[in-house]
Amino acid sequence: MNQGQTVFAQIAEFLSHNEFNRCVARYDGNRRVRRLSCWEQFLAMAFAQLTYRESLRDIEVCLGVQHRKLYHSGFRNPVKRATLAEANENRDWRIYADFAHSLIAIARPLYANEDLGLDLDATVYALDATTIDLCLALFPWAHFRRAKGAVKLHTVIDLRGKLPEALESDPDRDPWSITFAQARPVSIKFADDGFQVTVRGQRYTSGDREFRAMNITADYKVEISGTGSKLIRQGDLQIVPPNFVPGKSRLSSQQITLRFDLPDGEVAAGRAAAGEAAAEEAAK
């Protein structure tokens, strides 16, 4: 039987204490802290993430069961849920954001030559949208549905290593939810120097608003230079119902509202992520 370090302690050894301490010092994170340091808070939340804990009580109970091994895992004292809750509420989130970016910078070169199983030399990204449920009693600004609170987190993921490239959350805007059409939800049409991407949505919802079937289309041009290739969108987004005929069909007032309200950058990023691999192949 292994009498050495726990698996969690061995994983934590790969983390740089010096870099983490620099992040803490940058925002004075340990000021007036007596029991649960920023490092111990990070370890507790990392443990919760790795072991799929679902609540503060869950974290407290699981760590308490292994109280004899806590010191050798980096904890000076038992973790109490009230103390952890206070730390999560009051500590500066930028400490952990800066540390995460430093870890991503270390990990990215390690996956630089990973085989994606695709005939592409360029970097391929995927756009992920995750809804994080929140309690409206604690977060009254996070209206998602009439009786539900949530925020939507958009993450661009580098498929080589599955590393996040960028994080963006906009609490001031109602998040959009798209139910894709069953037939050809995303289609790409290639031309000589570019391509056209169409996303077919069966339903669009944002807060209390709901819009029925609409197609979102954008045209991209591929420009190749000595440093590589890039995509340039041509014209505005085309947001119309299925079977819409310009000059013959008319948009309803609700459909016109969707054309102006739908986040242009969010939709364009989704289409760009869906068609980036094909665009890079066309640029060759």
Description:
Helix content is 33%, strand content 29%. With 284 residues, it is of the alpha+beta class. The protein has two domains: 7-108; 125-283, no CATH class. The strands form two sheets. Strands 5, 6, 7, 8 and 9 form a five-stranded antiparallel beta sheet that branches. A hairpin with a 3-residue loop joins strand 6 and strand 7. It starts with 6 loop residues before the first helix and ends with a helix. The model is unreliable at 264-284 (pLDDT under 50).
Looking at how many chains there are and whether they match, the oligomeric state comes to single chain
End-to-end separation: 56 Å
Which structural class do the helices and strands define? alpha+beta
Number of helices: 8
Main sheet overview = 5 strands, antiparallel
What is the percentage of strand-forming residues? 25-35%
User: What characteristic shape results from the CA principal axes?
Assistant: extended
Share of helix, binned: 25-40%
Structural domain count? 2
Number of strands: 9
Radius of gyration: 24 Å
Which parts are unreliable, with pLDDT below 50 for 5 consecutive residues or more?
Answer: 264-284
**Can you write the helix and strand succession as a string?**
HHHHHHEEEEEEEEEHH
Average pLDDT reading: 77
Summarize the structure.
This protein has about 280 residues and is of the alpha+beta class. The chain is about 35% helix and about 30% strand.
Strand-helix topology:
Layout: H1 7-12, H2 17-26, H3 38-50, H4 56-65, H5 81-90, H6 94-110, E1 125-134, E2 143-145, E3 148-158, E4 163-168, E5 176-180, E6 186-190, E7 194-206, E8 209-225, E9 228-240, H7 253-261, H8 264-283
Antiparallel strand pairs: 1-3, 2-3, 3-4, 5-7, 6-7, 7-8, 8-9
Helix pairs in contact: 2-6, 4-5
